[in-house]
Amino acid sequence: MDAVNITLNYTAILAFILVAVDFTIRVLSIIYVPRNRRPQTAMAWLLAIFFIPYVGVLLFLLLGSRKLPKGRRDKQLEINKFILDTTEGMDLVSRDQPWPPWLQPVVELNRTLGAMPLVGGNSAKLYSEYQESLDAMTEAVGEATSYVHVEFYILSLDPTTKKFFDALEAAVKRGVRVRVLLDHIASLRSPGYLTTIRHLKRIGVDWQLMLPVQPFKWKFQRPDLRNHRKLLIIDGQVGFTGSQNMVDSTYNKRVNKKRGLKWKDLMVRFEGPIVAGINSLFITDWYSETDELLVRESVQKLARTSASLDAQVVPSGPGFEGENNLRLFNSLLYGAQHRVIITSPYFVPDDSMLYAITTAAQSGLDVQLFVSEVGDQALVYHAQRSYYETLLRAGVKIWLFPSPTVLHAKHFTIDDQVAVIGSSNMDMRSFSLNLEISVMVRGAEFIADMRELEAQYRSVSRELTLEEWMTRPRRSKVLDNIARLTAAVQ
Fold first, then answer.
1. Do the Cβ atoms of 283 and 403 come closer than 8 Å?
2. pLDDT in tens, 319-344
3. How far apart, in whole angstroms, are the C-alpha atoms of residue 320 and residue 72?
4. Rounded distance between C-alpha atoms, residue 99 and residue 11, angstroms
């Protein structure tokens, strides 16, 4: 009997301790979690902690901070200051065509947030076909005489990209300095990662992993803080950037091939002073990973081309205090007077962007959104769909790009004045967790090219109506709403 009583007492004590710990976790979470977080993000974490306290806390400790390690943040501040100081007075824009009154504050905002100057005298060419852009980048590497800077979220050697890797090898053999950056986790998850690394070693390029998660080498941060940029620089004269990774359009994944999925992207080839701005981002990331500052290649005052495009590079990511890309997007949305056309594969806006978009539509502007009919990431896909009703009721036209193509391009246009292209999605991850590149471009010929591309999308897409959307299955509605609860921490 005594043994039974002792067991009961231990059980009671254990139950009391668990209840006390559970209560303490909940109270401390309410105090700590909302600190310096947007309300919707804090609420998502609190829901996780309250429903699954112990698992929720562990996930929060692992994934709750969007800050890079202090050493990396210090490097980012150092290089940001260096770039701002050395680009002072580089502005080369002309006022031949009157600026809309809302553009100058946007340019100043970007500069304040750590962007390069707005520079004129640039040219740009769009590549919306996957193989065409790969061929163009391969050809550009083949023309390099001094250096090649390669930076991709996913870099993978496969039959589709082999010619690009062959061009890198040939460049090394003729004495060109080739530097390569690839995101560690994103590339690691891609088939053929070890083969790719062995090949980079064999051909003699200088390569580094971006944001490596290697705890045994004392290299660790929140594992889903990733470098999502895609860019290529040739001799500081030619620059490519956009949404396309250096990998086959199926991403070589069995599930994608089974579903017939192929990615459709947009890359842009730039020439002119803007190339120095794009190259500065490579230099920033190279310095973060290697401690080597490429001073001679950092900021080059390039001669203007005969073209008349004004352009500004806007970097963003956890190395910056503010969400630079989100601030840029919202400023442009509120500046729009006639038309807003957005293309984003993962459209999960925060409240501020949702208000900006719906306000534009409710004000009578022509607001259009291009998204994929099919999704490759279930959670994000359903979270995105949860916003469709609000958008449709506000008057936003939603165009569904047909399956099985994943429209992975990331760009938008404001009136006939400004376009933004780059690597940034319009979702919480790109706003807060990923290092991204956005390029704001002003110029009639560029906007005309973008309008032609948007017309191509529209010609094959179908418009989603509110009537159709409201009749979707109940199961889909439930999945969409549940996924939306996780949107702030995706």
1. no
2. 787 789 999 999 999 999 999 999 99
3. 11
4. 74
Query: In this model, does residue 189 exceed pLDDT 70?
Result: yes
Percent of the chain predicted with pLDDT > 70: 87
Long-range contacts of 456-459 (CB under 8 A, 24+ apart): 456/128, 457/343, 457/370, 457/399, 457/401, 457/407, 458/370, 458/399
3-state secondary structure of 251: coil
3-state secondary structure of 238: strand
Distance between CA atoms of 325 and 438, rounded to whole angstroms?
Answer: 7
Whole-number pLDDT of residue 210: 94
Omega before 404 cis (within 30°)? yes
Task: Please give the C-alpha separations between residue 72 and each of 67, 214, 315, 411, 436, in angstroms, as whole numbers.
Answer: 9, 15, 16, 29, 16
**Residue 419: which residues within 8 A CB-CB, separation 6 or more?**
411, 412, 413, 440, 441, 442, 446, 447, 450
- Model pLDDT for residues 144-167, shown as the tens digit of each residue: 999 999 999 999 999 999 999 999
At residue 362, the 3 state secondary structure works out as helix
Provide the residue count of the chain: 490
* Model pLDDT, residue 73: 75
- With a cut of 90, say whether residue 412 has pLDDT above it: yes
Which pLDDT value is given to residue 90? 55
Query: Taking all residues of the chain, what is their mean pLDDT, rounded to a whole number?
Result: 87
C-alpha distances (whole Å) from 223 to each of 40, 211, 215, 322, 430 are: 22, 8, 11, 21, 15
Residue 222: what are its φ and ψ, rounded to 5°? Answer: -50, 120
pTM, to two decimals: 0.88
Largest CA distance in the chain: 96
List, for residues 467-489, the tens digit of each pLDDT value.
999 999 999 888 888 888 776 55
Task: Confirm if 275 and 418 have CB atoms less than 8 A apart.
Answer: no
* pLDDT reported for residue 344: 96
The structure tokens listed for 333 are 């949305």
Q: What is the CA radius of gyration of the chain?
A: 24
Cβ neighbours of residue 482 under 8 Å, at least 6 residues apart? 382
Residue 49 has which token pair?
Answer: 């902690």
Please, where are the H alpha helices in 291-417?
A: 324-335, 351-362, 378-385, 388-394
Compute the distance between CA of residue 244 and CA of residue 266 in angstroms, rounded to an integer: 6
Helix ranges (H only) for 33-52 are: 39-51
Per 3-state DSSP, the chain is made up of helix, strand and coil in percentages (nearest 5) of 50, 20, 30
- The residues, ordered by sequence, that sit 6+ positions from 245 with a Cβ below 8 Å of its Cβ are 152, 153, 154, 155, 156, 230, 251
User: Residue 385, Cα to own-chain centre: how many angstroms?
Assistant: 19
